[in-house]
Amino acid sequence: MSKAFSNLLKHIDKLSHTDKERVFQWVKHYVEPSLTVDGRLIDEMREVRYKEGFECPHCTSEHINRFGKVNGRQRYRCKACRKTFMDTTNTILYRTRKGNEWITFVECMFKGYSLRKSAKIVGVTWVTLFYWRHKLLSALKQMGFEQFDGIVEVDETYFLYSQKGQRGISERKPRKRGGKSTLRGVSKEQVCVLVARDRTKATVSKVACMGRVVKTKVDGMIGSKLTPNNVLVTDAWRAYKTYADERGIEHYRIKSDDGKHVIKGLYHIQNVNGLHSRLKHWIHRFKGVASKYLDNYLAWFLLVDSHSNESTKHNIKELLLTSFVFEMTETYRSLRLSKFNM
Ligand SMILES: [Zn+2]
């Protein structure tokens, strides 16, 4: 080892974890140039975005001309609305030179880093990252899958309704962080999150409603992904039984005993319950999450929770492409002003 190199290692050793991460990201761009925003990735993105055929992002007309180049990239003009656009128009890559920062940010998300820490590593502001995070999670929510396979475990978990971060709230008294609902059991003050997961780990994890889940909500959330070949395993809550009966789907009810669910051979809901407890533990670090963002955090958690899977590298690529392709309509302001509607 040369003296210069061993000195370098000594210096790196003294850095904070955040700075080490910055060094790591810096080095990675040299070692692993394959995952950088270059012409090839843009081409791939273009193919995914226009897989149904090329159309104008402003008016969806298919009559389009090439219209010169900007910074080496093709520009187009729509014959119908006369507006010009690029392959990246309305995506995260439009009017930004931050493509590679975006990739670094996606990695920070996978590692579950806070916005503050990510901002230092990525080198952009906190506000930008707040926006990027929701953008990424919106894209993530669109990825999804077609249908469940085999046994599907379904169970709900509850979060206290929260308007954290919203100014000028008058309808409700502010509640201390992590406060307990004043009503016993499941009340209308609680946000119900429904989690359904099959044994291949295909998962739906979304906000269902306020209070106890009802049959129609179950159908709206997982109905399109269920077939008569599935076997539903749930707790004893009657909404599930009625629903399974109506759909003609085989159904096992697991009676809860002191909060612990009994295993009936293959038919249990321990995978979903395990997911619930990891979720609660993970979300605890944010010291209260505004209910309107809860769906985004659920998507984020699934991303982090699947990190140990072998398919993660493939997932990152797919997530990047989806996030590049996905058109964004929200702004920082519209995100802040949005309401939780249930
Ligand atoms: Zn047009």
UniProtKB/TrEMBL annotation:
InterPro entries the UniProt entry points to: Tnp_ISXO2-like, Transposase_27_IS1, Transposase_Zn_ribbon
Pfam family, one: Zn_ribbon_IS1595
Residue ranges of the TM segments: none
Residue span(s) of domain ISXO2-like transposase: 147-309
Alphabetical list of PANTHER family matching this protein: INSERTION ELEMENT IS1 1 PROTEIN INSB-RELATED
Identification of the protein by name: IS1595 family transposase
Organism: Robertmurraya kyonggiensis
Organism classification: Bacteria, Bacillati, Bacillota, Bacilli, Bacillales
